[in-house]
């Protein structure tokens, strides 16, 4: 635990350990654009190249299905986007991106759900939710601890990632990402990571999401 002298409160240890204005992964220099300290939310630049974004869209385009929600994988109005999962190590670009994401998130890729691609067309959204499973769910035994949402295209209008309890919104920008974690001892801090994908108003929105678990999957 780290004492935060300004607020004289005790700040909990975080998973994401990068400091400064940028940091280096094996093959790319990632920019830290902005951060909120608790819960830790970090806006990252230069996570994916334009070519990588385009390739992820091309590879997933024909495999998109109406998104399912929760442990039971039900079709639900909470998420009207379509989506697909890549298998871990599925192909060269997935291997490269998974390595980078693991280094950004500071968690071995073995702890990851496969990378998920979501596509939203105008009117489609992902209503407010948390990414961790409720304690009563089977999946909570190896619960999620952190998320990286990577934006694969520029959205004409709408489609922000919005954190309603923090009144904080992130505009999607091609190649950038938002990172957040919810592995705090204080349940109230985890609950503050409630977020939504706001309705797209014009254009399409494509994202790639990596969720990490507490243990290997
Ligand atoms: O589309 C977004 O901005 C958010 C996506 C999201 O919340 C998720 O994939 O868990
Ligand atoms: Fe989410």
TrEMBL record:
Its cofactor is L-ascorbate. The keyword Metal-binding applies. Pfam families: 2OG-FeII_Oxy_3. It comes from the Bacteria. Transmembrane segments: none annotated. Gene3D superfamilies: q2cbj1_9rhob like domain (2.60.120.620). InterPro entries: Oxoglu/Fe-dep_dioxygenase_dom (IPR005123), P4HA-like (IPR045054), Pro_4_hyd_alph (IPR006620), Pro_4_hyd_alph_FE2OG_OXY (IPR044862). The keyword Transferase does not apply. GO terms for molecular function: iron ion binding; L-ascorbic acid binding; procollagen-proline 4-dioxygenase activity. Residues 111-214 form the Fe2OG dioxygenase domain. Keywords: Dioxygenase, Iron, Metal-binding, Oxidoreductase, Vitamin C. PANTHER family: PROLYL 4-HYDROXYLASE ALPHA SUBUNIT, TRANSMEMBRANE PROLYL 4-HYDROXYLASE. This is 2OG-Fe(II) oxygenase.
């Amino acid at each position: 635990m780290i004492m935060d002298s300004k607020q004289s409160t005790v700040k909990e240890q975080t998973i994401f350990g990068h400091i400064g204005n940028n940091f280096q992964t094996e093959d790319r220099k990632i920019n830290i654009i902005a951060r909120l300290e608790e819960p830790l939310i970090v806006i990252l630049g230069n996570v994916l190249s334009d070519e990588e974004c385009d390739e992820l869209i091309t590879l997933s385009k024909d495999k998109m299905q109406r998104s399912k929600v929760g442990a039971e994988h039900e079709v639900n109005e909470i998420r009207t986007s379509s989506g697909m999962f890549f298998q871990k190590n599925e192909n060269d670009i997935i291997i490269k991106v998974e390595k980078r994401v693991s280094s950004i998130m500071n968690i071995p890729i073995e702890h990851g759900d496969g990378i998920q691609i979501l596509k939203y067309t105008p009117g489609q959204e992902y209503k407010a939710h948390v990414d961790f499973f409720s304690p009563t769910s089977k999946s909570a035994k190896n619960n999620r601890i952190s998320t990286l949402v990577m934006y694969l295209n520029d959205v004409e209008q709408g489609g922000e990632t919005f954190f309603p309890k923090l009144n904080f919104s992130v505009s999607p920008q091609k190649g950038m990402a938002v990172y957040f974690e919810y592995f705090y001892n204080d349940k109230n801090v985890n609950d503050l990571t409630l977020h939504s994908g706001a309705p797209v108003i014009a254009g399409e929105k494509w994202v790639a999401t990596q969720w990490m678990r507490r243990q290997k999957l």
